């Protein structure tokens, strides 16, 4: 039955792709040979020839449903992999999906929470507030009076996701096997990353934990507000959190009508991004306009509200240092430093010439400095950097891809709010100050001060640990010495065996010569005796050596 469903889904996908003329993507690959067969089974034809390939791909993914919409959204962030025209059109994909039946939503809530809906909420709005690929949201009020939103996973979505992912893995395998483009795009890796993201979003407890962590990080910073989570109402398929009220970040006209200071709002957006990345090493990686609101109750000091923390990114110290130093080097147009940083990080192979990489970075980035400051794209620089690095065999790290995606969102929103936003001017002091605080003398002092109690605590045990280390070193040295002696003994044994073999072969050769002389009637008694005598001596020597 499962195979029949998979086959039916494959037929549906094929029909949609052919109807939108996407068979052209197979043209440069050996799979182009099966295009006629695919068209025959599709029972349809391309009706959108006047549209660009990116527009047709957008329409096809939208028709195929939530899983493919989300895949397109994720692919749109891979500007280092996709052509610009396709990435641009995929970025337009909207995650607005037909809501599922409210009775199914109520049944899911009751099954997950173990009580009738009336015992969980004083009021539950059966009309959904929003509906997306994985879940939909309903307004409600707790028995205790707090207004909340209830997020509910789509019934049956996990089964559908697994079926579609099975097909996507198969297609990705074919694409990489038969197409150099597929290998360059790392199709199987992209689908594997996508699968991880999807399965994380299917467990709303993960999103609840992410939300709580982000709220904790900004508990003393008023520029970003994160709604509270009601943990007693959270289960894998249901999450309940505080209901927020604000102006959607995309409603620029409404923000201006409210008298919001747009310049401050744009600058605070940049501040929030860099605070998450470089201070907390934990950032909201899905900051599209639908997930960001503005509290305009104080128009001169607007604050942000963030929701939907299903996808979060993290950076380790090495990643942060790499990014910050690259950005600062770029500000100073120090392309040699950028090349050295890439080589030192190990992300560029050792055999790559630093001079060649420096030249490539200069070629990609120098034209940017010919533009006015408000025309320079910070995110474009990051894309350029990744694209250039990929030419030199650099594999872009997944956490940096999430960062690139978030930066694209942030810069786009910032310029929409305040077109004169100079992201360079805003970011440069922040990054330099972060580097100074993180790696300057004061930072070293703080690290020593933080570790000093542990050092004092471990100090009484140091003599014993040093003795064990010395003993281990001596044992290692003794073992190494024994190993050396064994190797020497083995070499001597091999040499002796080779000598024995030589004498044995000599004895055998002398016997064969004597026998050949006898068989051909050339034998002389004295000569035969000498040969046999020498062969006997050779055999004796071989056994005694």
Automatic annotation (TrEMBL):
Transmembrane segments: none annotated. It comes from Aliikangiella maris. It comes from the Bacteria. Residues 92-342 form the ABC1 atypical kinase-like domain. Belongs to the protein kinase superfamily. ADCK protein kinase family. Keywords: ATP-binding, Cell inner membrane, Cell membrane, Kinase, Membrane, Nucleotide-binding, Transferase, Transmembrane, Transmembrane helix, Ubiquinone, Ubiquinone biosynthesis. Pathway: Cofactor biosynthesis; ubiquinone biosynthesis [regulation]. Pfam families: ABC1. CDD domains: UbiB. This is Ubiquinone biosynthesis regulatory protein kinase UbiB.
């Amino acid at each position: 039955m499962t195979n029949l469903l998979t086959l039916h889904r494959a037929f549906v996908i094929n029909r949609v792709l052919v109807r939108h003329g996407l068979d052209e993507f197979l043209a440069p690959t050996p799979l182009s040979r099966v295009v006629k067969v695919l068209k025959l089974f599709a029972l349809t034809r391309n009706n959108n020839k006047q549209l660009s390939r990116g527009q047709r791909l957008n329409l096809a993914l939208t028709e195929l449903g939530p899983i493919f919409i989300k895949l397109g959204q994720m692919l749109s962030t891979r500007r280092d992999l996709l052509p610009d025209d396709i990435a641009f059109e995929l970025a337009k994909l909207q995650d607005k999906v037909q809501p599922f039946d409210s009775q199914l939503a109520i049944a899911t809530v009751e099954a997950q929470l173990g009580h009738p809906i009336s015992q969980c909420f004083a009021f539950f709005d059966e009309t959904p507030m929003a509906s997306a690929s994985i879940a939909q949201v309903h307004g409600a009020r707790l028995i205790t009076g707090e207004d909340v939103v209830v997020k509910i996973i789509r019934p049956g979505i996990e089964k559908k996701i697994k079926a579609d992912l099975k097909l996507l893995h198969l297609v990705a395998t074919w694409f990489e096997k038969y197409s150099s483009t597929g290998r360059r795009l790392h199709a199987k890796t992209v689908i594997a990353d996508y699968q991880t993201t999807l399965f994380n979003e299917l467990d709303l407890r993960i999103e609840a934990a992410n939300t709580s962590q982000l709220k904790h990080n900004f508990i003393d910073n008023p520029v970003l507000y994160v709604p509270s989570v009601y943990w007693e109402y959270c289960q894998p398929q249901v999450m309940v959190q505080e209901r927020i009220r604000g102006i959607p970040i995309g409603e620029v006209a409404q923000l201006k009508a409210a008298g919001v200071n747009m310049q401050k709002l744009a600058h605070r957006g940049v501040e929030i991004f860099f605070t998450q990345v470089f201070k907390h090493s934990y950032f909201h990686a899905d900051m599209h306009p639908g997930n960001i609101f503005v509290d305009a109750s104080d128009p001169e000091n607007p604050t942000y509200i963030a929701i939907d923390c299903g996808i979060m990114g993290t950076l380790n110290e090495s990643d942060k240092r790499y990014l910050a130093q690259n950005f600062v080097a770029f500000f100073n147009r120090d392309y040699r430093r950028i090349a050295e940083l890439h080589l030192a990080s190990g992300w560029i192979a050792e055999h790559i010439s630093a001079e060649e990489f420096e030249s490539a970075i200069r070629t990609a980035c120098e034209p940017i400095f010919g533009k006015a400051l408000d025309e320079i794209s910070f995110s474009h620089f990051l894309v350029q950097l990744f694209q250039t690095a990929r030419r030199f065999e650099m594999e872009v790290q997944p956490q940096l891809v999430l960062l690139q995606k978030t930066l694209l969102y942030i810069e786009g929103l910032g310029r929409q709010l305040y077109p004169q936003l100079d992201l360079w001017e805003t970011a440069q002091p922040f990054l330099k100050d972060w580097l100074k605080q993180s790696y300057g003398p004061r930072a070293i002092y703080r690290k020593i001060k933080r570790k000093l109690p542990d050092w004092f605590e471990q100090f009484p045990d140091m003599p014993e640990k040093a003795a064990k280390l010395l003993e281990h070193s001596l044992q290692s040295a003794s073992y190494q010495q024994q190993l050396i002696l064994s190797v020497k003994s083995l070499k001597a044994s091999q040499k002796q065996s080779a000598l024995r073999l030589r004498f044995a072969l000599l004895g055998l050769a002398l016997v064969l010569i004597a026998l050949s002389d006898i068989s051909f009637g050339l034998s002389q008694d004295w000569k035969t005796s000498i040969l046999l005598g020498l062969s006997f001596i050779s055999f004796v020597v071989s056994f005694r050596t």
